[in-house]
UniProtKB/TrEMBL annotation:
This is Uncharacterized protein. Residues 39-48 have a biased composition (Low complexity). Keywords: Signal. Residues 39-59 are annotated as: Disordered. Residues 1-26 form the signal peptide.
């Protein structure tokens, strides 16, 4: 498997569920990227929110969901808790022990930060460490404070691994039947803000807001947890249309 700097590119996926709560990792900054656009008009039936959605959920603060991203070079990890930016996991240490990846997570904000009393999915990213074979079963052993748990990632198909996209191309993976982890690229200080999620017969459209803000001119990977208004139908490839905030693209969520 490629090392962390080379990890973040392409499209893939798989999913699995586990027990604990919260993980994270900062990523690599590279080139220039812009910051604001006018988003396209939202589609009809939808839900909205950043790193979330208002679809059905039975999750607790002790849950963790995982999904392959970036053609098996990285993994999206979803934890549940406060939506406040200072109350999310922001750093992670990932080490390989054979086919097990041991992940230790810590808070990104001030320990005394005041957190909102809500429960939303928060997505973070880890690079797959050197030596892990993603064509075989991979186990995630995660620890976050007093919480720990284990998750199993499904084996990736060879065509997913062999056809990575270049750096800058988004990818997405299922973390449950209504949840998608989305990897996009842009300013590290201006993560995507989900304005609307609309289901269609074939897939879904995600519209991003374009708030007025000052952004650093780097190109970093950002992960966003998206909750659909209703479960997908079947296991066939699911097209996801991204629009607004310089994120316009069409990708398949595989899983």
């Amino acid at each position: 498997m490629k090392a962390a700097a080379e990890t973040l590119r392409g499209m893939s996926l798989s999913r699995s569920r586990l027990l604990p709560s919260a993980l994270a990792l900062a990523a690599v900054a590279l080139l220039a990227a812009g910051c604001a656009t006018t988003p396209a008009s939202p589609a009809p039936t939808s839900t909205s929110g950043s790193d979330a959605g208002s679809g059905p959920s039975e999750h607790t603060a002790n849950d963790i969901e995982v999904a392959w991203l970036d053609a098996g070079h990285s993994i999206g990890i979803v934890t549940w808790g406060s939506s406040s930016s200072d109350c999310r996991p922001g750093q992670a240490d990932a080490q390989a022990d054979g086919q097990t990846i041991r992940v230790t997570l810590v808070d990104q904000g001030d320990a005394e930060a005041i957190c909102t009393d809500d429960l939303v999915p928060r997505a973070t990213l880890i690079a797959v460490p050197e030596g892990v074979d993603v064509t075989k079963q991979v186990t995630i052993d995660a620890a976050y404070g007093d919480v720990s748990g284990e998750a199993i990632l499904a084996v990736l198909e060879s065509d997913v691994i062999e056809n990575p996209e270049p750096v800058g191309v988004p990818s997405a993976g299922w973390f449950d039947d209504t949840g998608i982890v989305l990897l996009t690229w842009g300013s590290s200080t201006c993560p995507p803000v989900v304005e609307d999620v609309a289901m269609t017969d074939a897939g879904a459209t995600v519209t991003f807001a374009s708030p007025e803000r000052v952004c650093t001119m780097d190109l970093a990977p950002r992960v966003t947890a998206i909750t659909l208004p209703e479960p997908r139908a079947g296991d066939s490839p699911f097209p996801l249309t991204l629009t607004g905030d310089h994120l316009d693209a069409e990708i398949d969520v595989i899983g």
